Amino acid sequence: METTKSTKGINIALWIAQVLIALTLIWGAYAKLLQPLEETAKMLPWALDNPGLVKFTGLIDLLGGLGIILPAVLKIQPKLTVFAAYGVIALMIAASVFHISRGEESLIGMNIFFLILAAFVAWGRTKKVPITTN
């Protein structure tokens, strides 16, 4: 009985992490892909200097946001959620390196936070915590 409660609690925490990652990445994709570049540059000062990188990272954000949630929600190849989590980990490492290279070390806190969330999702979904939506 205790194992079931524990598993249910972990599953809820995993869903919260997945939704938080998905919403954040999809919001980032919107900002990078659909807003005018000048608007995006208000949040991302490097955007005007690197418009191609903005679009590329926007696409990666969109794929990560959808990949971390859709396979699990639709229960179609839910193992893809784990691969999406690995992708988010790689994205957060790359973003941290990018910020550090620009002297923006103070900005990597969010990257580290989302890296930890993605690692939790990868661990939890690899451990075969049942994907339930109820």
Structure description:
With 134 residues, this protein is mainly alpha-helical. 76% of the residues lie in helices and 0% in strands. The protein contains 6 helices and no strands. The chain has helices at residues 2-33, 37-43, 51-67, 70-74, 79-101, 109-126. The protein is elongated. The model has no long low-confidence stretch (mean pLDDT 91).
Name the helix and strand elements from N-terminus to C-terminus, one letter apiece. Answer: HHHHHH
The chain-level structural class is mainly alpha
Low-confidence runs (pLDDT<50, min 5 residues)?
Answer: none
Tell the overall outline.
elongated
Number of helices: 6
What's the end-to-end separation, in Å? 18 Å
Helix content: over 70%
Share of residues in strands: under 5%
Mean pLDDT: 91
Layout of secondary structure:
Layout: H1 2-33, H2 37-43, H3 51-67, H4 70-74, H5 79-101, H6 109-126
Helix pairs in contact: 1-3, 1-6, 3-5, 5-6
What descriptive keywords fit this protein?
single chain; 134 residues; mainly alpha; 6 helices; 76% helix
Produce a short descriptive summary.
The protein is mainly alpha-helical and 134 residues long. Helices cover 76% and strands 0% of the residues. The mean pLDDT is 91.
